[in-house]
What does this fold into?
Amino acid sequence: MLLVEDDGPLRERFARLLAAWPGGQLVAACATLGQALQALQGGRIDLLITDLRLPDGHGTQAIRLLRSLHPQAEAMVISVLADDATVIEAIEAGAAGYLLKDADSIELLEAIEELRAGRSPISSSIARVIVRRLGAAGADAPAVPPAEALTPRETEILWGIARGLTYAELAQQLGISRQTVPVHIKNVYRKLEATNRSEAVFNASRNGLIRL
It folds into this structure.
């Protein structure tokens, strides 16, 4: 795990919490975007937890680099920023989770576990931002080209993603093997031009494929 937080006391609190958590290993706790980019290029990171407003840049830059270097890694935002444009920018950059900084320690660890289980943990106010944006964008959205239309199985997978089901839960519900789920999800992402679950659901709703 890599933690990026410019507020010193908060960074130290999060770092102590993550260092003591048996579910993962904290590689570094960075105070700036520059430090984060260097850490990302220096070794394999499977989870990035980042603030957005940093002294020398924006957390989405770290998220994009993570997605470029390690496509299977996950990214989660912890920020005071909750305006529509910032939330959507973070999701489009590749964030699969988004918590506000009023989240407590237990909620943070639960969110990490949900993220690693295949879900997309978000604060309730952030969820409202996404729903508002989906409602505003849906009416004017272009149709998905026929060649890229989802198959019935991919549509079922998409609904499972929207509900936050894990790979194992999807496999059990659809009666397919656990190993085939990532294949279907990869195809869904490609067709929807998405890089993570949140973005796939957003694009699908915007294009009228599902209604939340």
